[in-house]
Amino acid sequence: MRVTTRHVRILAAAIVAAVVIGTAGFVVIEDWSVEDALYQTVITLTTVGFREVHELDGAGRLWAMVMAISGVAIIFGSVGIISEYVVEEVTSGRRQARAMMRSVDAATDHYILCGYGRVGAAVARELVHGGQRVVVVDTSEASRDQAAADGHLIVPGDATEDATLEAAGARRARGLVACVDSDSENVFIVLSARQLNPGLFIVARANAAEAEAKILRAGANRVVSPYGTAGRRIAELAIRPRVIDFIDAALSHGELTFSIEELPVGSGSWLEGRTVGELRSRGIFTLAVFLGEERHEAHPADDRAFAAGESIVVTGPAAELRTISAHA
User: Fold this and answer.
1) Mean pLDDT lowest among 80-84, 85-89, 134-138, 247-251
2) Calpha distance 294→132 (Å, rounded)
């Protein structure tokens, strides 16, 4: 029988009941005060062995023997049940699971990663390198164990279900990445996530070319085909390897002193109202200004001022970019 907190509560209630009944028995049988009766009951149940409070008659001695036997039964029962409860708590992982869920419940502005296979693990590494917190959702116990070993928060369950995404904090998250192997599951994940949080930034994986349009219609902001991306990258490396190496180094974290970043222009932020020329004077070059999901201005003029709601793609010293990003 699996010991639960309910069994522990029943045991505690039995101890209290034994003390109350024993005290009442000494009060009724021996006509003692409640204080004396309670003291006699406690030392009898715990088999301490102190002398009797008052001399007992035949009925009192019989009641004391009943209390002593009850005390022995309660002591051995308590040791067995509590020991089994503690051992099961440690070995079953329930304590760790509760601690994990408390950490997930406290997470905000994080990324939810649905699927922790080879692609998912690579995505998680890059997100962590970018300073982001990751909550992994996966149905596979082996995948969850690997994600936990890699230091990520875990939510077991099917990411296509609203309850699972709710548990992962979809309403509080910054973004979601759907990269399970099944295109149909990715469609359902995107649909559920978009319904829970209309402002969530969603990136999804598409294995088949025909699935990309469906995933976008479901609500994804971006769709990536691992095979198509790999093919383009191989071709680019074959044609212009040094360019690709340079861009990879600029997008990496901590390898070079410069970087390429996307900075949102928040209302009332330091960037609002600043110009391209002002950033250039600090050694930061503006490559493009994005006005929305589709429209952008490439190589804007120095007098171009940034407005709230826009995003800018810039390159420059990594330390300077981090300082600006903190106030963006």
Assistant:
1) 85-89
2) 25
